[in-house]
Every structure is written in C-alpha cells, then in structure tokens.
Amino acid sequence: MPLIIIGVGIKYSVDEDFFKNWDSTTAYVLGFIFADGNVCISNRGKYLVVSSVDREIIFKIKNWLKSEHKICSKKPNWPNGKTKFVLRIGNRFIYDSLMLRGLYPNKSLTIDFPIVPKRYLKDFIRGYFDGDGCVYVEKSKGQGERFIVKRLTIVFTSGSKLFLIGLLEALRSNLVIRQSKIYKSNRSFQIRFSTSDSIALFKYLYGNLESEIFLRRKFDIFSYYFRLRFTRVDNYIGDILRCFCKVPYPSG
C-alpha cells in the first residue's frame, strides 16, 4: 500500500511496509528514529517526524523509505545555531508499525531499549549513535607546540536511563567492553567510552557492512583518529577504512 493522504487532495508516496520486516537498513533507520525522531497524532492523522542538523542522513532516510514527502529546513532560534532538516510523514501504517517496534509519542524520557534481532543489533545501535551519539578526538600540545593525540571517546546520550541500561547490556552481550557506568548530566543521561572501548565499538558498528548505512561525518572522525594513531590500526580496522574512506587508506 504505497499511497498515503495528507490533508485534502494531497497525496504522497511512501513505502508503508518499510518497518514490517527486519534488514540492516530498517534496523538503522529505527535506531535513528529512537534517537532523533518521534511519532505523534494530530487531528489530521498519524505522523512520523525525523530531524537532524545533518542534511545527508535525512535525505538518505527519505530515499530508503521511498518517500515523496518534502524535507523542510528549520532555522535556529539562537545565534550560531545550526539549521535543522525535518522529514514529516503522515501515514497510519508506518505509525502503527513503529508502535509495534517500541516507539510511542513523547518517548524521550521513558523509552526502553527495544527487542532487536541479534543479526541487526549493530545496525540499530549505529543508527542511534548517528542520532544521539558523538565521537571526538582529544588532543593536547606536547613539546615543540606539536599536538599529541590523547584519546578517542564515544558518547551515547538519552533522556531515558532505562534505554541506556538496555543499550549497555546489548553491547556487553556482543563485545568485550570495560565501561559500566551511566552518568547523569543536566538534561540527560550518558555513557562515555574509553579509547580501547571506542575502538572495539568502531569495529563492531562498522565491520562487515555491505553498503554505506551510516552518517559520513561521524565515520570520518574515526578515520581522522586512525590516521593520527596508525599504530592502532589492525588488519580488521584497515579493511573497514579502505572500504569506506574517500581518500585511499594505506595498506600494510
């Protein structure tokens, strides 16, 4: 059922069955929606809304959903803020499918980690990371004003502590990580991973991908770190980087 109606006489096409079956793309998009999306009901219908300051990922999601809906840009309300790109899809079948996957309106503070098939768990987590995660390289000045790379850090953020508890349990069941603490910040909860844990996460999230189902900007931060700390690159990491880096990555 590819046809939907918004308002009176306005018809847009979208893949209404997108969330009914699991695959890598579906799991990734679902993870991103758990981070930077929401479902809502108005007097005009049921909606999925996905937003990001990264234009690239919103257009990817629109294409994956085979959506003809327009992407709107929303200007920031404060100086130095970033423009946000918003995809709003009115469709009761998509809404109902997402509800079955564990989403609901006003989810931010209470959402639980959903049931995801193990085969697609890393895709879901990578989608969530691209929405509400961050990665950064910390540097400091050494002798002769040269910068020394100190650490690579991955952070997952959520308004729901329950969600992060489930995320941490899911990660522990699939790889060896040392992090075990969830931190409370002013408006949310966070999990922060050390360099060794962040490298293990990189290998888990990006290994054995058949296509570029990720946000390029965040992947490039990992690539930047490994170029600075080449001794951290093993054969597995090297294969990932050579597969997806825009600039050819050295081998050997």
UniProtKB/TrEMBL annotation:
Matching PROSITE patterns: INTEIN_ENDONUCLEASE (PS50819)
Transmembrane segments: none
Alphabetized GO MF terms: endonuclease activity
Matches recorded under InterPro entries: Homing_endonucl (IPR027434), Intein_endonuc_central (IPR004042), LAGLIDADG_dom (IPR004860)
UniProt superkingdom: Bacteria
Domain DOD-type homing endonuclease: 29-177
Designated name of the protein: DOD-type homing endonuclease domain-containing protein
Provenance organism: Candidatus Harrisonbacteria bacterium CG10_big_fil_rev_8_21_14_0_10_40_38
Lineage: Bacteria, Candidatus Harrisoniibacteriota
